[in-house]
Write a structure and sequence with these properties.
The protein is an all-alpha fold. The chain has helices at 2-47, 53-61, 66-81, 84-95, 98-111, 117-176. It is built from 6 helices and no strands. The longest helix is centred in the C-terminal third of the chain and has 60 residues, at 117-176. The N and C termini lie far apart (85 Å).
């Protein structure tokens, strides 16, 4: 009986550890995707003065968050040691984000000599729209959470009015009688 219990607990522990790895990757991907609109804006502004992709990545690395910063460190080291285009494709494959794929596509176009300023303007616009939609979804969830507190606050305000009116009415009743 104890053997079955230990076997069941070991299988349960394995599944929880297995799922935890996917949760960590998903959380990291969300954190990186949250920072990508700012990254795209930085690239868009940098392309107006400089077309060196490595320099753009190094300049953004200073202000990048920890998760995207680790990926940029790896990519920058990769770019210094081998082909720029392959390093950007490795970044895209490591993160696995469609938004990052769009950014990498624009950076590869810049490496090939294309003028990508308009591409990044449109990309920044699209990413801002996505970011606004995500914020609207998050805000839509809040009223459900806050509704019970709003009702309690409304009840307290009404109670204050009722108490003040009652005290005034009781105080003025002496003048009538």
């Amino acid at each position: 009986m104890a053997g079955f219990l230990i076997m069941g607990l070991s299988i349960l522990m394995w599944f929880s550890t297995y799922q935890k790895a996917f949760d960590i990757v998903k959380k990291r991907k969300k954190l990186i995707e949250a920072e990508l609109p700012r990254f795209a804006v930085s690239i868009q502004q940098g392309l107006s003065t400089n077309r060196d992709v490595l320099k753009l990545l190094v300049s953004y690395r200073r202000i990048a968050g920890p998760n995207l910063g680790q990926e940029l460190d790896t990519t920058i080291a990769d770019m210094k040691t081998c082909n720029y285009e392959n390093a950007l494709l490795h970044l895209q494959n490591r993160v696995g984000s469609t938004m990052l794929s769009d950014i990498v596509r624009g950076l590869i176009g810049t490496l090939r000599g294309d003028d990508q300023q308009m591409y990044f303007k449109m990309l920044v616009f699209d990413m801002r729209q996505i970011e606004q939609n995500n914020l609207k979804k998050k805000a839509a969830k809040r009223p459900k959470q806050m509704q019970k507190y709003s009702m309690m606050m409304l009840f307290c305000i009404l109670l204050i009015y009722v108490v003040v009116l009652s005290v005034e009415v009781v105080g003025s009743l002496g003048a009538f009688f």
